[in-house]
Write a structure and sequence with these properties.
mainly beta
């Protein structure tokens, strides 16, 4: 196993230029590649490195160069295969990750949004990666399969910290776990969503349906998705505020609100298949009214 370190001394080509790497040694299989702190040379060409299965691919905190390109909305990501990805650069980047021996991805730093509707770090995948862990500081931004036409598959996504994460319509995910104090924008169909701790703001947008379970133990979920949720549970420190109108009708099969949990659906957008169960004081449950009055002769 070697440890190739990027220099970009000759050009921005990831592959094919030995002098872009310390000791003129390009990455080979089972290497631990490092894109080092203190370097600002962008990686912009020869981007398809899927044929080399690395042990790890690390972008160190303090690397300020861009990775991949986006020219007039045409994205060319750096494509990398590795068992472990550790991403902490601060240059706007586009990465397509391919797992090797399962694979885990850690995102511990990302750039801010370069513009409205864009993301500092853009992630897609070439196959299913079991785990994606994201822990950002305030102002940092990650988009997962969030660029139009891009796709990505992660079995489990764990989000913490104070940053902004957008889970795009091209994402496939089984379980999403949320903590921290950030802003999460869900546009993908995700089977299980668990809001665990902290004070996150979670925006479930039109196509994002937690088809199996939405469990809210903390924070605020702004619910404007479609489809059916089999289980919805809201606990003391959690709130679900339904957005939209009755035209956006959604179906919840089994709904339970515990303690001082908050559920608001005053626009009558939810069709409760089974009776809603209140397991607390119920003071924060607001389901609107549905009353018909008819004038009749006495």
């Amino acid at each position: 196993m070697g440890t190739p370190i990027w220099t970009g001394e000759t050009s921005g080509a990831y592959e094919g230029i030995t002098t872009n790497w310390i000791a003129d040694t390009e990455p080979i299989a089972d290497d631990a590649v490092i894109i080092p702190a203190g370097n600002s040379v962008a990686i912009a060409t020869a981007l398809d490195a899927n044929d080399i299965d690395l042990l790890s691919f690390t972008v160190e905190e303090g690397y300020t160069g861009a990775i991949g390109t986006n020219t007039n909305e045409v994205v060319a990501p750096l494509q990398v295969s590795a068992t472990t990805f550790r991403l902490a650069g601060s240059g706007v980047s586009y990465l397509k990750l391919k797992p090797h021996d399962d694979g885990t991805t850690y995102v511990i730093k990302a750039p801010a949004r370069p513009a409205i509707g864009q993301f500092g770090l853009n992630l897609t995948t070439g196959a299913t990666i079991p785990t994606l862990n994201i822990d950002l500081a305030s102002g940092e931004s990650v988009g997962v399969a969030a660029v139009a036409g891009e796709t990505g598959t992660f079995t489990t996504i764990n989000i913490d910290g104070d940053g902004d994460v957008t889970l795009g319509a091209g994402l496939t995910c089984t379980t999403l776990n949320i903590a921290g104090d950030g802003n999460i924008y869900g546009q993908a169909g995700i089977a299980n969503i668990n809001v665990i701790s902290g004070s996150p703001k979670v925006y479930l947008q039109k196509a994002c349906a937690a088809s199996v379970a939405l469990i809210v133990k903390a924070g605020t979920v702004y619910e404007d998705s479609t489809g059916t949720k089999k289980i919805v549970q809201i606990f003391d420190d959690g709130a679900v505020l339904c957005q939209g109108s009755v035209a956006d009708l959604r179906v919840w099969t089994d709904t339970e609100v515990y303690g001082a949990g908050t559920l608001e659906d005053e626009a009558l957008t939810i069709d409760f298949t089974n009776p809603h169960k209140r397991k607390g004081n119920g003071e924060n449950i607001k389901l609107g009214s549905n009353i018909s009055l008819a004038r009749v002769a006495l």
